[in-house]
C-alpha cells in the first residue's frame, strides 16, 4: 500500500491507495456530509450530498472518488452549498417528515443535515404519493416509508452484512419504493430480525419496535458491553432511558461483530427487567422457599459446607461454574473450591 | 479458534462441519455468507440437517449423525491418494504421517459414503480436490463435531485434515471451533475444569500444586483430578457427593437424561445455587442466592477467538441481587478465607499473575484494543492466530483416528435417530430468551423435525402433536415436516421445558473429555391417539 498526500480545505492530509476522498476526510475529522454512504457497506455515490470540488474544477461524489497524489479538495463552497440544499429540499418535499412522531427524532442523520443547511419548511412535491406505513406486521421492525430518502443503506445492509437479501427497490422515479422479498410486508418476509437495516437507516423510515423502554434520543445514554449469548462475543451499545430501562441495542463497530448483531443480541435483553428476577436470598424451610437476608443465607451456606466437609471430606463437595459468568467469577469459584474446600470437583457446561 | 473472526475475508474456501452457523453463531454465519454469495468464495458443508449454509455450498454432504470422522477420513484418503496434500508442511512441521496414512487407506469414497449414508461419493473426491486447490481454507465446527462419544477423535480429525492441507499457522486458515456460550472459552481458561488450574495447568502436577499453594497462600491443594458434571451426578446418586455449589447453571434442562439429574439433585444433603431466576434446577436447591445479570456487572469475557473483552455495568442491580464474585467471596470468608477483593479488576490482576497467557492483558487493553491470548506481557500485541512457526508441542502430531459408531444405534425397537441442537431465536435452556418478548413471540414452542417420507410412513401431518420416545423417556411434541432433515432422522431443539429434548438424550460420554452424546441416540416416533 502506498501513502498518498493530498490537500483538503487547505490542510495537507495523508491516505492510502484505494481510499476515497470521503474516507480520508472523515479520518481527519473533516466533516463532509453524506446520506447514502456508510463505512460498513459498498459505496454507490447515489445521494450526491457528499459532492466536493476536485482540483478547483469539477464536482465529484467524494464517497466514490479515489484519492490521488497532489489532489486538492474543497469540501464546501457557494455552489456546493446550493446543490446540497437543493438535494435536501427535494428529499424533504418528496417525503413526509414530522419529527414529533418519529423514533429517529434527535438521532436522525437527515434531520442533522436539514439543520446544518438551515432548510425551512418546503411544500410537498406535486408527484408525492403516500407510501407504506407498517407498524404491525413485524414484532422487530417498524416502517414508515414516507420518511425514506431512498439512500439504499438498508438494501445493502441486508445484502452485504446480514446477507439475507430481504430489501430491494422497485419501480422508478417518484414511484420508487422499498419492498421486502418481492412485495411482502416485512413481518411476513424472510427477515430474520437482525435489525441491521434499522441500525443503518439514516432516518426514521425503519426503526425498532419497542422491546421494553422508550425515551427521546437525547435522554438516552449508551454503554457498551458484550452479548450474553453465543461465543462470537458481539460488542453491543446498550441504550437506556432516564429510568434505567433498556430501550435498544446497537452493534458496536469496534467489536468482533463490526457493528452487526443477530436477533438474540438485538432483542434478547429484556429478561433482565423481568418480574421473575430473584431479588432476595431464598432458603427452603419445610419444603417451601422463604425469603431471607444475606447474612442468614451466607452463614447457612458456609456452615452447611463446613459440616459436610468435616463429616465426609472435601471430595464430597462439588461446584458447577458457568460459561455465562465472567472470567473473574469463574476464577474465584475454582479458587474457592480448590483452596477453601480442597477438591478439584469443579466443572461447567463447556460440553453441553 | 486457532484463527480470528476478522480473517474470514482472507480465506478462499470454508469447510463447515457440524455447525449450523447462521443460527447458532449468526454474525460469523453472515460473514461467511457474504464471502460465498457476494465474493464467490467456495463452501463445503457437512451436516445431517440441510441447514441454511447448505443452500450456498458448492458441495453439501447430508451425513448420518455421528459419522463426521468417516467423511473427514474420506477427504484425507483422497488427498493422500492423489498426492494433493501439502507435502512441505507435512514434512517440516508434522509427524506421524505414515501411521495415519495407513489407517486412512481403507476410507475410500465408497466405503465412507456407505457409513455416512450419502449417495454422492464422487463429490468427496471433488470436494477434496477443491480443498487442495484453494488456500487458505478455514475449517469451522461446533457441537456437531464434539457432542459424541467420539467427540475428542472428531476434533483430532479436523486437525489432521487442516495439517495435511497446510492450513494451520496461516491467516485465513485454521481449526476453528465455535463456542456455544459467551464465556465458555474464558471458563476453561480460568480453570473451571476438574483437571486443570487456570491456563490449563494440570492439577495432577507437584509443580503446579506448589505454584498455586504459593500464589494462594494455602497448604495442601489436591493432586487428584476432580469430577466432571455427569460424574458429579452419578456420584451424588451413589452417595459420594453430598453437596453441590452451583453458579448459574441449569443442568435439569441442559444435561442429558433429565430424570437422572433430578435424582442426583434430590440425593444431595445440601445444594446451593446462585442465579438470576429460580430455574428448573433451582427448585431442587436448599438455598438460592440472587445474582446480578450481565448488564449489572463488570468483568471480562473471552470469546471464541480468544479475544478478551470488558463488560461494563449498564444498569443498577435489581433488589438485593449481588455480583457472583461477591457471593463466592462472602461464603469463602465465612469459611476462613483471607480474601479482600473490592472489585472485579482486583481479581483480574491476580488472574494475570497465575495465568501466563493472560499476563499482558489489562482492563484498559481489553476495553480499547483487540487483544487475544496468548499475551504474556504488556508489550506483547496478543496472538491473532496460533501455531505460526511451530506447534505448542513442536511438531504437529497426526493422530490416526478410526470411525466408531455411536453408543446407541437405531434398532428394531427404536428405529429412528434423534439429534438435538439450537435454533436462531433461542438460547440453551431458554432461561433468558424465553423471557424475551421478541424471541418468545418468534418461536414459542418446541417441535420435532421429520422428513416428509417418514411423516407419510407414520401418517403424521405437519403441526400434529406426536410422541417421541427413547430408552430414557418420552415427550409429546409438535411435528414439523421438512425436507431439511434426513429420512430416518429427527431433530429437536432443546430450549423448551414443555417438550424437553433432554428427557430423551443419552448420557453416554466420550471416554476422554466426558462430553455427552447429545447429537445422536435411537428413538421411536408414534402417532398420539386422540
Ligand atoms: S432486520 Fe436484518 S434480516 Fe431483516 S430486513 Fe433488516 S437487515 Fe434484513
Ligand atoms: S429505509 Fe432508510 S436506509 Fe432504507 S432507503 Fe429508506 S432511508 Fe435509506
Ligand atoms: S449478537 Fe448473536 S451472534 Fe453476536 S454474540 Fe450475541 S448471540 Fe452471538
Layout: helices, strands, pairs:
The complex is a heterodimer of chains A (352) and B (530).
Chain A: E1 3-8, E2 11-16, H1 21-27, E3 51-54, E4 59-61, E5 72-74, H2 78-94, H3 109-116, E6 133-134, E7 141-144, H4 153-161, E8 167-170, E9 177-180, H5 196-200, E10 206-208, E11 221-226, E12 235-240, E13 246-251, H6 263-267, E14 282-285, E15 288-291, H7 294-312, E16 317-320, H8 327-341, E17 346-347
Chain B: E1 13-17, H1 21-24, H2 26-39, E2 42-46, H3 52-56, E3 59-61, H4 68-81, H5 87-93, E4 94-95, H6 97-104, H7 109-116, H8 121-133, E5 137-141, H9 143-146, H10 151-164, E6 175-177, H11 184-189, E7 196-197, E8 201-202, H12 206-216, H13 229-238, E9 243-247, H14 251-254, H15 258-266, E10 270-275, E11 287-290, E12 299-302, E13 308-311, H16 324-334, H17 344-354, H18 363-368, E14 396-397, E15 416-421, H19 437-442, E16 447-450, H20 452-457, E17 465-470, E18 473-481, E19 489-493, E20 521-527
Helix pairs in contact in B: 4-7, 4-8, 4-10, 7-8, 13-15
Bound molecules: iron/sulfur cluster (3 copies).
> What is the topology, as strand order, of the major beta sheet of chain A?
2-1-5-3-4
For the termini of chain A, the CA-CA separation is 46 Å
Task: Figure out the total of helices of chain B.
Answer: 20
In spatial order, strands of the major sheet of chain B run 15-19-16-18-17-20
CA-based shape of chain A: elongated
Radius of gyration of chain B, in angstroms, nearest whole number: 24 Å
| Largest sheet: number of strands, sense, barrel closure of chain A | 5 strands, mixed
Low-confidence parts of chain A, pLDDT < 50 over ≥5 residues? none
Shape of chain B: globular
CATH topology of the largest domain in chain B: Rossmann fold
Radius of gyration of chain A: 27 Å
CATH architecture of the largest domain in chain B: 3-Layer(aba) Sandwich
CATH class of the domain at 3-76 in chain A: Alpha Beta
The number of helical elements of chain A comes to 8
What is the first-to-last residue Cα distance of chain B?
50 Å
Arithmetic mean pLDDT of chain B: 91
> What fraction strand of chain A?
15-25%
The CATH topology of the domain at 3-76 in chain A: Ubiquitin-like (UB roll)
Structural class of the helix and strand makeup of chain A?
Answer: alpha+beta
Helix content of chain B: 25-40%
Give the distinct bound molecules: iron/sulfur cluster
Amino acid at each position: 500500500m502506498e501513502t498518498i498526500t493530498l490537500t483538503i480545505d487547505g490542510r495537507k492530509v495523508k491516505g492510502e491507495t484505494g481510499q476515497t476522498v470521503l474516507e480520508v476526510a472523515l479520518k481527519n475529522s473533516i466533516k463532509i456530509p453524506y446520506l447514502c454512504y456508510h463505512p460498513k457497506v459498498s459505496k454507490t455515490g447515489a445521494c450526491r450530498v457528499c459532492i466536493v470540488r476536485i482540483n478547483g474544477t469539477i464536482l465529484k461524489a467524494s464517497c466514490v472518488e479515489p484519492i490521488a497524489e497532489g489532489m486538492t479538495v474543497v469540501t464546501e463552497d457557494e455552489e456546493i452549498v446550493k446543490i446540497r440544499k437543493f438535494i435536501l429540499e427535494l428529499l424533504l418535499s418528496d417525503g413526509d417528515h414530522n419529527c414529533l412522531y418519529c423514533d429517529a427524532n434527535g438521532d436522525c442523520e437527515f434531520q442533522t443535515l436539514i439543520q446544518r443547511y438551515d432548510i425551512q419548511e418546503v411544500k410537498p412535491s406535486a408527484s408525492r404519493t403516500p407510501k407504506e406505513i407498517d407498524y404491525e406486521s413485524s414484532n422487530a421492525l417498524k416502517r414508515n416509508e414516507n420518511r425514506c430518502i431512498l439512500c439504499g443503506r438498508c438494501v445493502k445492509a441486508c445484502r452485504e452484512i446480514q446477507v439475507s437479501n430481504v430489501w430491494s427497490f422497485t419501480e422508478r422515479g417518484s414511484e420508487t419504493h422499498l419492498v421486502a422479498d418481492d412485495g411482502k410486508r416485512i413481518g411476513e418476509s424472510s427477515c430474520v430480525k437482525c435489525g441491521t437495516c434499522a441500525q443503518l437507516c439514516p432516518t426514521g423510515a425503519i426503526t425498532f419496535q419497542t422491546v421494553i423502554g422508550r425515551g427521546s434520543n437525547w435522554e438516552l445514554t449508551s454503554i457498551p458491553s458484550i452479548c450474553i449469548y453465543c461465543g462470537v462475543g458481539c460488542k453491543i451499545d446498550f441504550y437506556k432511558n432516564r429510568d434505567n430501562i433498556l430501550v435498544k441495542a446497537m452493534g458496536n463497530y469496534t467489536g468482533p461483530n463490526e457493528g452487526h448483531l443477530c436477533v438474540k443480541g438485538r432483542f434478547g435483553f429484556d429478561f433482565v427487567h423481568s418480574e421473575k428476577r430473584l431479588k432476595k436470598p431464598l432458603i427452603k424451610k419445610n419444603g417451601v422457599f422463604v425469603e431471607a437476608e444475606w447474612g442468614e443465607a451466607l452463614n447457612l451456606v458456609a456452615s452447611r459446607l463446613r459440616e459436610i466437609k468435616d463429616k465426609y471430606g472435601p471430595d464430597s463437595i462439588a461446584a458447577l461454574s458457568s460459561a455465562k459468568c465472567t472470567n473473574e467469577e469463574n476464577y474465584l469459584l475454582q479458587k474457592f473450591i480448590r483452596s477453601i474446600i480442597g477438591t478439584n470437583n469443579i466443572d461447567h457446561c463447556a460440553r453441553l | 479458534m486457532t484463527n480470528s473472526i476478522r480473517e474470514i475475508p482472507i480465506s478462499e474456501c470454508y469447510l463447515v462441519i457440524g455447525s449450523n452457523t447462521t443460527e447458532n453463531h449468526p454474525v460469523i454465519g453472515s460473514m461467511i455468507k457474504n464471502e460465498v454469495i457476494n465474493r464467490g468464495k467456495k463452501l463445503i458443508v457437512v451436516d445431517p440437517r440441510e441447514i441454511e449454509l447448505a443452500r450456498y455450498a458448492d458441495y453439501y454432504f447430508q451425513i448420518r449423525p455421528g459419522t463426521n470422522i468417516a467423511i473427514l477420513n474420506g477427504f484425507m484418503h483422497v488427498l493422500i491418494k492423489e498426492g494433493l496434500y501439502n507435502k512441505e508442511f507435512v514434512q517440516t512441521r508434522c509427524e506421524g504421517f505414515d501411521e495415519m496414512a495407513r489407517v486412512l487407506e481403507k476410507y475410500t469414497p465408497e466405503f465412507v459414503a456407505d457409513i455416512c449414508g450419502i449417495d454422492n461419493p464422487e463429490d468427496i473426491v471433488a470436494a477434496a480436490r477443491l480443498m487442495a486447490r484453494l488456500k487458505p481454507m478455514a475449517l469451522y465446527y461446533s457441537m456437531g463435531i464434539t457432542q459424541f462419544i467420539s467427540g475428542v477423535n472428531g476434533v483430532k480429525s479436523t486437525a489432521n485434515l487442516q495439517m495435511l492441507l497446510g492450513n494451520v499457522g496461516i491467516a485465513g486458515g485454521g481449526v476453528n471451533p465455535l463456542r456455544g456460550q459467551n464465556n465458555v472459552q474464558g471458563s476453561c481458561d480460568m480453570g473451571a475444569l476438574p483437571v486443570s488450574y487456570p491456563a490449563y495447568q494440570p492439577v495432577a502436577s507437584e509443580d503446579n500444586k506448589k505454584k498455586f499453594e504459593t500464589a494462594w497462600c494455602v497448604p495442601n491443594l489436591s493432586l487428584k483430578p476432580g469430577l466432571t458434571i455427569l460424574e458429579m451426578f452419578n456420584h451424588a446418586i451413589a452417595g459420594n457427593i453430598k453437596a453441590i455449589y452451583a453458579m448459574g447453571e441449569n443442568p435439569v434442562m441442559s444435561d442429558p437424561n433429565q430424570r437422572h439429574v433430578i435424582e442426583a439433585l434430590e440425593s444431595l444433603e445440601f445444594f446451593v445455587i446462585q442465579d438470576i431466576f429460580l430455574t428448573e434446577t433451582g427448585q431442587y436447591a436448599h438455598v438460592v442466592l440472587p445474582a446480578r445479570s450481565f448488564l449489572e456487572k463488570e468483568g471480562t469475557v473471552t470469546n471464541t477467538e480468544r479475544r478478551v473483552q470488558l463488560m461494563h455495568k449498564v444498569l443498577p442491580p435489581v433488589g438485593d441481587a449481588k455480583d457472583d464474585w461477591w457471593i463466592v467471596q462472602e461464603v469463602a470468608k465465612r469459611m476462613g478465607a483471607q480474601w479482600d477483593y473490592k472489585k472485579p479488576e482486583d481479581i483480574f490482576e491476580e488472574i494475570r499473575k497465575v495465568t501466563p497467557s493472560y499476563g499482558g492483558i489489562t482492563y484498559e487493553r481489553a476495553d480499547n484494543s483487540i487483544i487475544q491470548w496468548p499475551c504474556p506481557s504488556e508489550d506483547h500485541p496478543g496472538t491473532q492466530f496460533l501455531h505460526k512457526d511451530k506447534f505448542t508441542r513442536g511438531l504437529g502430531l497426526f493422530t490416526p483416528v478410526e470411525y466408531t459408531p455411536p453408543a446407541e444405534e437405531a434398532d428394531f425397537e427404536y428405529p429412528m435417530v434423534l439429534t438435538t441442537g439450537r435454533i436462531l431465536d433461542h438460547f440453551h435452556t431458554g432461561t433468558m430468551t424465553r423471557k424475551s418478548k421478541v424471541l418468545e413471540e418468534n418461536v414459542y414452542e418446541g417441535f420435532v423435525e421429520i422428513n416428509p417420507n417418514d411423516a407419510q410412513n407414520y401418517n403424521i401431518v405437519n403441526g400434529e402433536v406426536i410422541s417421541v420416545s427413547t430408552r430414557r423417556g418420552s415427550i409429546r411434541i409438535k411435528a414439523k415436516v421438512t425436507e431439511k432433515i434426513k429420512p430416518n432422522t429427527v431433530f429437536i431443539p432443546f430450549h423448551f421445558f414443555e417438550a424437553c429434548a433432554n428427557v430423551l438424550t443419552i448420557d453416554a460420554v466420550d471416554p476422554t473429555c466426558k462430553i455427552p452424546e447429545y447429537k445422536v441416540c435411537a428413538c421411536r416416533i408414534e402417532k398420539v391417539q386422540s
